[in-house]
């Protein structure tokens, strides 16, 4: 009899998790959620290192403007944050699925909660660690700036920068969604009603 035949022949009913097993999964789920939350610290530091700053030129008299292309860096910083937290969610979901003896709803809830908190922590830590370059005196042509005063010849100005922003808090939802989708897709591919869970402790 082949493995394919065994999948279609009647056999023992699939194992259903009872309340005792669910309660036994809670400590492991809490530990995993705590680990994922702590991972948000280095994740935020990595974003602060990778995110580009936005340079701004302060003109005499209070005017200001950005050199060509600098305005796009604000979007780049948010995009990098989204990619980092999405990757974080996918990796966390894959690691959770590898914990074969804890597969189930408790670990799924812990995965979603942990990735949400970890991504939120990453955003807050990234905001705190984001740096801005020191002001530098320069000569600029106001007409060459995207936002400026009247055009004219080169004038003394100050080149400064704005720290990057990771974006709104709800970007953390990307991590939770990515983690949940990874876990659910792994369960679908596995195809077993008990998700291939074994009895190891």
Verbal overview:
- The chain has helices at 3-8, 19-50, 72-98, 105-129, 172-190; strands at 54-58, 64-65, 136-140, 155-162.
- β1 (54-58) and β2 form a beta hairpin.
- Strands 2-1-4-3 form a 4-stranded antiparallel sheet.
- The protein is an alpha+beta fold and 201 residues long.
- It has a domain at 23-54 and 70-133 and 163-190.
- The model has no long low-confidence stretch (mean pLDDT 79).
Secondary structure blueprint with pairings:
Layout: H1 3-8, H2 19-50, E1 54-58, E2 64-65, H3 72-98, H4 105-129, E3 136-140, E4 155-162, H5 172-190
Antiparallel strand pairs: 1-2, 1-4, 3-4
Helix pairs in contact: 2-3, 2-4, 3-4, 3-5, 4-5
Key traits:
single chain, 201 residues, alpha+beta, four-stranded antiparallel sheet, elongated
Give the helix proportion (percent range).
Answer: 40-55%
Helix count equals 5
The fraction of residues assigned to DSSP E strands is 5-15%
The shape is elongated
SSE arrangement, N to C: HHEEHHEEH
Please give the number of β-strands.
4
Strand order of the largest sheet: 2-1-4-3
Main β-sheet description: 4 strands, antiparallel
Tell me the distance between the termini. Answer: 31 Å
Q: What is the gyration radius calculated from CA atoms? A: 25 Å
Low-confidence stretches: none
Mean pLDDT: 79
Structural class: alpha+beta
């Amino acid at each position: 009899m082949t493995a394919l035949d065994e999948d279609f022949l009647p056999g023992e009913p699939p194992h259903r998790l009872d309340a005792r097993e669910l309660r036994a999964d809670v400590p492991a789920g809490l530990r995993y959620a705590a680990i994922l939350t702590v991972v948000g610290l280095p994740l935020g530091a990595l974003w602060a290192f990778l995110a580009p700053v936005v340079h701004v030129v302060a003109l005499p008299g209070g005017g200001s403007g950005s050199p060509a292309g600098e305005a796009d860096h604000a979007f780049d910083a948010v995009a990098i944050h989204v990619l980092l937290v999405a990757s974080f969610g996918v990796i966390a979901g894959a690691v959770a699925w590898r914990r074969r003896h804890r597969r189930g709803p408790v670990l799924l809830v812990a995965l979603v909660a942990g990735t949400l908190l970890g991504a939120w922590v990453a955003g807050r830590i990234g905001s705190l660690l984001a740096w801005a370059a020191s002001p530098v005196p320069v000569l600029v042509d106001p007409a060459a700036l995207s936002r400026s005063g009247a055009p004219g010849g080169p004038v003394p100005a100050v080149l400064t920068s704005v720290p990057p922003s990771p974006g709104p808090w709800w970007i953390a939802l990307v991590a939770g969604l990515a983690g949940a989708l990874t876990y659910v897709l792994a369960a679908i591919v596995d195809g077993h009603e008990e998700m291939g869970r074994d009895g190891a402790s």
